[in-house]
Design a protein that fits this description.
Layout: E1 6-9, H1 13-24, E2 29-32, E3 56-59, H2 65-75, H3 79-87, E4 88-89, E5 94-97, H4 99-111, E6 116-119, E7 132-134, H5 142-152, E8 157-163, E9 166-168, E10 178-180, E11 193-198, H6 200-212, H7 224-227, H8 240-245, E12 272-278, E13 285-288, H9 297-304, E14 315-317, E15 320-327, H10 329-332, E16 338-339, E17 342-347, H11 357-375, H12 388-398, H13 419-425, H14 429-451
Bound molecules: flavin-adenine dinucleotide (FAD).
Residues 9-15, 32-35, 40, 42-43, 52-54, 122-123, 135-141, 144, 349-351, 356-357, 360 line the site of flavin-adenine dinucleotide.
C-alpha cells in the first residue's frame, strides 16, 4: 500500500466524507472499502455511504442540536449534506432521504474525483507509515479490529454497546424496594437508587435461573466469535449471565453487592441487591444498574421477575448487547481526532466513539480536513469549543474515560451559557437553546473568517 497518498480505510459515511474533504484540499488519497468482496451483515449494497437502518439524518428544525451540527457541516461544504439535499424526501422536521439516491450521489462524486483512488479491498492492518484515517465503523472487520487492539491496547477497544433493562417506575413494588444510596452518599443528599433486596435463598434461586436462561442468537455472524469467547468482553460491561458463570457468589461481590445498604424492613444488610437508577427527570422509569445481558427477551422477563420488588414490573426496554466497535476516545484521541501515541493516525466515524449518521459524517469531515493540514506540514486546528463540531470532538477526547459511551450530539455536550445569559434564559429552555446556537454560529463565522 505505501505511496505518498493519505490512506482512508472504510468507505462509509465518515470515510467517504473524509476522502472528499482531502480532495477539496487538493490532497490525494486512497479510499479502501471492502464491500462488495466482503460485506457486513448490516450493509445491503456496494454503494459508499450506505445508510444501514433508518433513512433519517434527524431533526432539521432550527435551534435543535442536530440542526446545529448539520448547519455547521453545510458551511464546511459536506458532501453528505449536499447528497442529502439532492435525495431529500418529505419527513416533517427531520432531514429524511431516499437512501439509494443519497448513497449513489456520494459514490458517483467519489468515483468521478481524480484525486481519490477507490480501492475495493479489505485492509487487515493499519499501515505503519504515512497519514491514515481509520473510518471502518461499528462493524469493522475482525482482522483490522484485532490490529487496532494491538495498536491501542485491547482494553481500550470495545466490541459492544451494552444496554441495561428499564422498568416502569409505577410497577416497582415499593413495599419491598427501598430508596437509598450506598453509605448514604448521594449527589444531592437524597437517595439516588431504589434497591431490590434479596435474602440468601432468593439470591441463589435467581442465580440458578440466570444460568439456565436462553441466550439471544448473535445478530450477525461476526458476533459469534464474541459469543464463543474468542474475542473477550470488556470487563466493566460483562453480561450478568457471564458474571454468574464465574461462580455463584460473583454477582453479589459485583453489580449486586449489598455493601453500605440497610433494608428498612429487616434493619439488616441484604444478602444481595439489584439497584435501580432513575432514568429520566420525572422518575417514571428506572434502569437496572449493571444488568446488561444477551438473554432472549422472554428469558429476561421470566428471570427478572424473580427480583424482589420486580415481581410484576413492566419492562419498557430489555437488556441488549449490540455489536459496536469503538475505541475509548478520551484515553486515545486528542481534540483533532489523532491517536495520542501516533498522531499520524486519525479515527473518524462511529469507531472514534461518536454515535449516529450525522456525527459520523461530522468526524469524517473534520478528520479529512485535519489530515490535509497535517500533510501540508501544518498543525490541525481544533474547532471552537462552543460549536457543535468542537463539542463533539471535546466529548470524544475529554469525557470521563472510565464511563465512556458513544454519544449523539446534544445540548449537554455544548458548554453552558455564561452566568448572565443563563440567568436571562433560565426559565425558557427554547430560548436558551437558541442562544447556544447563536453563540455557535458566531464562533463558526469567526473560525471561517480565519481558517477557510
Ligand atoms: C445495524 C446498525 C443500525 C444503525 N442504525 C442507525 C440509525 O438508524 N441512525 C443513526 O443515526 N445511526 C445508526 N447506526 C449507527 C451509525 O450511525 C452507523 O453505523 C453509521 O453508518 C456509522 O458510520 P461510519 O462511517 O462510522 O461506519 P459505516 O457507515 O459502517 O462505514 C464503515 C465502512 O467501512 C467498511 N469496512 C469495515 N472494515 C473494513 C476493512 N477492514 N477494510 C475496508 N473497509 C472496511 C465497511 O464495509 C463500511 O462500508 C446504526 C449502526 C448499526 C450497526
Amino acid at each position: 500500500m505505501p505511496d505518498s497518498s493519505i490512506q482512508v480505510i472504510g468507505g462509509g459515511l465518515a470515510g467517504a466524507e473524509a476522502a472528499w474533504q482531502l480532495a477539496r484540499a487538493g490532497v490525494r488519497c486512497n479510499l479502501f472499502e471492502m464491500r462488495p468482496a466482503k460485506s457486513t451483515n448490516a450493509h445491503q449494497t456496494a454503494l459508499l455511504a450506505e445508510l444501514v437502518c433508518s433513512n433519517s439524518l434527524k431533526s432539521d428544525a432550527e435551534n435543535t442540536a442536530s440542526w446545529l451540527l448539520k448547519h455547521e457541516l453545510r458551511r464546511l461544504d459536506s458532501l453528505a449534506l449536499r447528497a442529502a439535499a439532492e435525495a431529500r424526501v418529505p419527513g416533517g422536521h427531520a432531514l429524511t432521504v431516499d437512501r439509494e439516491r443519497f448513497a449513489a450521489f456520494i459514490t458517483a462524486a467519489i468515483e468521478d474525483e481524480p484525486l481519490i483512488e477507490l480501492r475495493r479491498e479489505e485492509v487487515r492492518a493499519i499501515p505503519r507509515t504515512g497519514i491514515v484515517i481509520v473510518a471502518t465503523g461499528p462493524l469493522t472487520s475482525g482482522a483490522l479490529a484485532a490490529d487496532i487492539a494491538n495498536l491501542t491496547g485491547s482494553e481500550r477497544l470495545y466490541f459492544y454497546d451494552s444496554i441495561s433493562p428499564i422498568v416502569d417506575a409505577s410497577t416497582v413494588n415499593r413495599e419491598i424496594a427501598f430508596p437509598a444510596s450506598r453509605y448514604g452518599k448521594s449527589l444531592d443528599g437524597g437517595a439516588d437508587y431504589l434497591n431490590c433486596p434479596f435474602t440468601r435463598d432468593e439470591y441463589y434461586v435467581f442465580v440458578e435461573a440466570l444460568l439456565a436462561a436462553e441466550s439471544a442468537p448473535a445478530h450477525i455472524p461476526e458476533d459469534q466469535e464474541i459469543h464463543e469467547g474468542r474475542i473477550p468482553f470488556f470487563e466493566s460491561c460483562l453480561p450478568i449471565e457471564e458474571i454468574a458463570r464465574r461462580g455463584p457468589d460473583t454477582l453479589r461481590f459485583g453489580p449486586m453487592k449489598p455493601v453500605g445498604l440497610t433494608d428498612p424492613r429487616t434493619g439488616r444488610r441484604p444478602w444481595a441487591v439489584v439497584q435501580l437508577r432513575q432514568e429520566d427527570q420525572r422518575a417514571d422509569s428506572y434502569n437496572l444498574v449493571g444488568f446488561q445481558n444477551h438473554m432472549t427477551f422472554g428469558a429476561q422477563k421470566r428471570v427478572f421477575s424473580l427480583i424482589p420488588g420486580l415481581e410484576n414490573a413492566v419492562f419498557l426496554r430489555f437488556g441488549q448487547m449490540h455489536r459496536n466497535t469503538y475505541i475509548n476516545g478520551p484515553e486515545l484521541l486528542n481534540s483533532t481526532l489523532q491517536l495520542k501515541p501516533d498522531p499520524r493516525v486519525f479515527f473518524a466515524g462511529q469507531i472514534s466513539g461518536v454515535e449516529g449518521y450525522v456525527e459520523s459524517i461530522a468526524t469524517g469531515l473534520l478528520a479529512g480536513r485535519w489530515a490535509a493540514a497535517l500533510a501540508a506540514g501544518e498543525a490541525p486546528r481544533p474547532m471552537p469549543r462552543t460549536t457543535a463540531l468542537g463539542s463533539l470532538c471535546h466529548y470524544v477526547s475529554a469525557a470521563d474515560p472510565r464511563r465512556y459511551q458513544p454519544a449523539n450530539v446534544s445540548f449537554d455536550l455544548l458548554p453552558a451559557l455564561d452566568d448572565a445569559a443563563h440567568a436571562k434564559f433560565r426559565k425558557d429552555r427554547k430560548a436558551r437553546h437558541a442562544e447556544i446556537c447563536r453563540r455557535a454560529v458566531a464562533a463558526m463565522d469567526e473560525y471561517l473568517a480565519v481558517h477557510v
